[in-house]
């Protein structure tokens, strides 16, 4: 399966401008039919706490993702913000659309970033999400989730072999981003795709460094710090062979794996 991650410098709280950036990069990257294309966390607005201004209840971004997936015949994953119907706070979500433009998965960030004030404005997600995608079992996660390996272990225990992390990870901690992505690949014997934004928002500079890692922790792609894309072809059989020859996942202690909610 071809995987492409689009690393964009999101224009602050400007959905139309960021939709345009995505289309421009897609024209250059030219994904194949059936490819998986991944966009950063809150790609259409930046990592804003202003839920009232950026929420997608009118579906501008969700409809854009659905339409683009259908027009390009790709699997398309991107970050969106909705309002939680119970609390009125935001829901920081990753949504995936099929090549027919149909929503096939939706995941809400399990670990809002308390230090950045996210937990004051956004609710925490309820469950891990798994989706069958071109022969892989994929698990989407969002940014700060990456610091909680038990979430990824639980996804792996339920069959995930492709982990996708979308982020707005600041440059000041970029070494953590790169190291933790690699660790999640090694410890879960899984492909890991991490797609981060780049550029400046009102508070932070983001240095990108979107990566794709194979199940051995070897980097297949590194986007650097500028707008652009990463690309790799993921092969299922080498992953299956590695898990068979090094069956570490079979030694997991089930009493220590986070149970399903």
Short description:
With 261 residues, the chain is α/β, with parallel strands linked by helices.
Account of the protein in words:
- There is one protein chain.
- This protein is an alpha/beta fold.
- The chain has a single domain, classed as Carbon-nitrogen hydrolase (Nitrilase/N-carbamoyl-D-aminoacid amidohydrolase, 4-Layer Sandwich), CATH 3.60.110.10.
- It is built from 7 helices and 14 strands.
- Strands 5-4-3-2-1-14 form a 6-stranded mixed sheet.
- It is globular.
- The mean pLDDT is 96.
- The overall average pLDDT, rounded, is 96
The beta-strand count equals: 14
What's the tally of helices? 7
Q: Which sheet architecture does the biggest sheet show?
A: 6 strands, mixed
**How many structural domains are formed by the residues?**
1
Q: Roughly how many Å apart are the termini?
A: 30 Å
Strand content: 25-35%
Write the layout of secondary structure elements.
Elements: E1 2-7, H1 15-29, E2 36-38, H2 51-54, H3 60-72, E3 75-83, E4 90-97, E5 103-108, H4 118-121, E6 131-133, E7 136-142, H5 149-157, E8 162-167, H6 174-188, E9 191-196, E10 198-200, E11 205-207, E12 211-213, E13 219-222, E14 228-233, H7 236-245
Parallel strand pairs: 1-2, 2-3, 7-8, 8-9
Antiparallel strand pairs: 1-14, 3-4, 4-5, 6-7, 9-12, 10-11, 12-13
